[in-house]
C-alpha cells in the first residue's frame, strides 16, 4: 500500500491518514535544527512499515531543508542505528 505523508505545520507533525486513525512524527524547528520528538502508529496498523516510512521521510526532509536533525524520539534513534546512511 502507498501512503501519502503530509507536513501538518499547524500541529508540528508529519502525518499519514490511515482512514480510521493517523500515524505521525511530532517535530520542533528552531533556527537551523529540527528535533524529532515522538513517532506514533496506531496499534491496529503496526507491523506494516509505517513508522519506518515516516522516519525515512522526516530524515530526508531534514536533509533537503538543510536542517540539522536532533533525534529525541526512541523509534527514530533505533531507525538511524539500523540505517547508517541516516547517521546524524
CATH homologous superfamily heading: Gcn5-related N-acetyltransferase (GNAT)
Structural class: alpha+beta
Q: Roughly what is the average pLDDT, rounded to an integer?
A: 96
**Biggest sheet: strand arrangement:** 1-2-3-4-5
The total domain count is 1
Structural descriptors:
single chain, 34% strand, globular, 88 residues, Aminopeptidase, alpha+beta, five-stranded mixed β-sheet, 2 helices
Walk me through the structure.
The protein has one domain (5-86): Gcn5-related N-acetyltransferase (GNAT) (Aminopeptidase), CATH 3.40.630.30. A 5-stranded mixed beta sheet has the order 1-2-3-4-5. With 88 residues, the chain is of the alpha+beta class. It is globular and about 35 Å long. It has helices at 50-64, 74-82, and strands spanning 5-8, 13-17, 22-30, 33-40, 68-71. It contains 2 helices and 5 strands.
What is this entry, summarized?
This protein is of the alpha+beta class and about 90 residues long. About 25% of the residues lie in helices and about 35% in strands. The protein has a single domain, classed as 3-Layer(aba) Sandwich (Aminopeptidase).
What is the secondary structure topology, with strand pairs?
Layout: E1 5-8, E2 13-17, E3 22-30, E4 33-40, H1 50-64, E5 68-71, H2 74-82
Parallel strand pairs: 4-5
Antiparallel strand pairs: 1-2, 2-3, 3-4
Amino acid at each position: 500500500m502507498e501512503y501519502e505523508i503530509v507536513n501538518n505545520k499547524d500541529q508540528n507533525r508529519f502525518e499519514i491518514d490511515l482512514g480510521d486513525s493517523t500515524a505521525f512524527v511530532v517535530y520542533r524547528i528552531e533556527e537551523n535544527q529540527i528535533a524529532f520528538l515522538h513517532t506514533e502508529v496506531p496499534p491496529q496498523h503496526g507491523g506494516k512499515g509505517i513508522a519506518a516510512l515516516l522516519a525515512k521521510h522526516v530524515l530526508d526532509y531534514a536533509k533537503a531543508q538543510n536542517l540539522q536533525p536532533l533525534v529525541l524520539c526512541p523509534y527514530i534513534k533505533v531507525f538511524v542505528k539500523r540505517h547508517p546512511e541516516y547517521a546524524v
